[in-house]
Amino acid sequence: MSERFCFLNGRIMPAQEIGIPVLDRGFLYGDGLFETLKGEHGRVHLLNRHLARLRKSCTDLNLPFPDDVDWERVLSALFEANGLTENPCTVKIILTRGIAQGRGLPKAQTPTLLIIIQPHPESPPEAYVKGMAVTVFPLPWENPLAEHKTLAYLNSLVAREYAYSRGLDEILLVNSRGFVTEASGSSLVWVEGETVFGTPGPGRLPGVTEAALRDALVQCGVQVGQREIRADELPAADAVFLTNSLMGVMPVTRLDTTDLRKPGYAEKAAEFNALLAGQSAPAYIAGQRVYA
């Protein structure tokens, strides 16, 4: 199907007919929020968690959350209209302040809500064996809006380009105290002995996939924790991963020229992804050591 359909302010319409006013503050200032979700078999993964994060950011940034939207019905209709009831896809929810007069964060009189669905092929199994090669952004990363997924995303794209221009896949962001907070488009997770760690907030986006993985591991009796970590400590970890909604749990196999692959890293990634998909608990759970 060549024609694509989007949802804009209560209507499903052809993408080529979508028009955003030039005075929309999302266009003028990046004054808005977005969520990127994974769609598959006509449903959206972790929808309620994404909406909860969006709602919190709306509260913090004086944006009205669209409570009148029947999300399940709208998304189901979009899958159908785009012929994507079976194929994997990306769902992007974009909410802006719309046209609003005033300084600071004025009250949104006519917020804009746009939902876009596009095909997005699954990463092949070999990608989770090859993993990602990463580097560290050379400047301290201090963003007062780091806890919100805002449309003012150029800083993350510039950081990511630093990695791409060096033939690498992702970039780790480090705060002014020298600790890794996150990557430009994903959360950092690593394994030390019997514990699965993530980085603490504030100062980073609370990852939806990371939180879902952490909760699933806790339910299975696996130890989880948060602590600060420097990039030069990562080679000592038993396994290092990046997580986001589209790729799930992806191994980090190289930091600059340092090989991070340890025995069983790919199997751990497969187990974590199976757990996220709601499949049976990994073999290391049920009275065994987390990683023998």
Topology of helices and strands:
Blueprint: E1 5-8, E2 11-14, H1 25-29, E3 32-40, E4 43-44, H2 47-60, H3 71-81, E5 89-99, E6 110-119, H4 127-130, E7 132-136, H5 154-164, E8 170-174, E9 180-183, E10 187-192, E11 195-198, H6 208-219, E12 223-226, E13 239-244, E14 248-255, E15 258-259, H7 265-276
Explain how this protein is built.
The chain has 292 residues and is an alpha+beta fold. The chain has 2 domains: 5-119, D-amino Acid Aminotransferase, Chain A, domain 1; 127-276, D-amino Acid Aminotransferase, Chain A, domain 2 (Alpha-Beta Barrel), CATH 3.20.10.10. It is built from 7 helices and 15 strands. It has helices at residues 25-29, 47-60, 71-81, 127-130, 154-164, 208-219, 265-276; strands spanning 5-8, 11-14, 32-40, 43-44, 89-99, 110-119, 132-136, 170-174, 180-183, 187-192, 195-198, 223-226, 239-244, 248-255, 258-259. Strands 7, 8, 9, 10, 11, 12, 13, 14 and 15 form a 9-stranded mixed β-sheet that branches. A 6-stranded antiparallel β-sheet has the order 2-1-6-5-3-4. The protein is globular. Residues 284-292 have low confidence and may be disordered.
